[in-house]
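PT: before anyone asks, these are the final sequences, not the draft ones from last week. 344 residues across everything. Please model them as a single complex and drop the result in this thread when it's through.
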Amino acid sequence: MKSLDHKRNLVLGLETSCDETSAAVVEDGRIILSDVISSQVPVHQKFGGVVPEIASRKHIEHVIPVIDQALKEAKVELADLSAIGVTYGPGLVGALLVGVATAKALAFAADLPLVGVHHLEGHIFANLLANRELEPPFMALVVSGGHTSLVEVKGYNEFSLIGQTRDDAAGEAFDKIARVMGLPYPGGPQIDRLARQGDPKAIAFPRAMVHEHDFSFSGLKSAVLNYLNSMKQKQEDYCPADVAASFQAAVVDVLVTKTVQAAKETGMKKVVLAGGVAANSSLREKLAEALAAEKIDFYYPPLILCTDNGAMIACRAHYQFEAGFTAPLTLNARPTMRLGQSLG
Ligand code: KG4
Ligand code: ZN
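LR: through. Structure below.
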């Protein structure tokens, strides 16, 4: 039984949508008491990408020990919690199911409210953990392995998707280019590192400025692949650092231009960066410069909060819980879902 006088506001966040098993305890929505992340990167590295079936099995092995450690580090018991938040989409269905089933079982056993969290809303809310004063409204650029989206965050529970990629996600393009260049998975950090030694103007790769706030990276991906193939056919040497730097510059240029444009058009005075690709050093630097020139405040999370983690899910769950958006024990995984869908 929960103690009746529990006054602390503690949310356990659970994240298993891809290849990280993570659990965290967050107090009052903003204070991280623990954030345990068990990464499967070394397991998937030899396959050059995430193998869904293996990811699900690894989540099953790790989920309970990770939760135990998160509670222990936060020095709390299940009975001290106010709610349990879990990512239920978008993501790999088998991977999501492990988190969802675990969260439901814990919620039922400990008689706690359950909150279903949208993974990308979690990424956006990582910024609220990094900057405790930050409040909506703001514009969010979400760049991850699976998504590239511009989201107007009008309130804690009010989202409006104003642009997204029509084909590949930014992170997907990074991973694909890295793979063909023989770099290990995940490719984003590898390209980022290599690009620092290269010339971003060495090769003029295309910048696709598709309609309004949408993005497209498949043309750029093909252009880089064609360049690499033609060099190979001609048996000419190319400079990998220049390819990495020129490719990265093309991605960053489009992301920066579109984000500044979207913020100006909507009159937003704050922009936040979110998702795995938010770790990219060039993107952070160029977006900071461009937004400063427009006198728009810029926020981005520390590297550890850019990757998939339970703390961002607990933070997001806190704001849903406060507004009464809890989920029934029939909650199911949703491999594809839209922003705001968990709000009914
Ligand atoms: O958000 P995330 O952990 O997973 C999804 O929700 O999809 O993002 C993972 C993506 C991968 O594509 C990875 O290559 C990319 O983020 N990434 C980066 C960097 N660090 C991670 N991309 C570019 N530069 C980085 N420094
Ligand atoms: Zn993610």
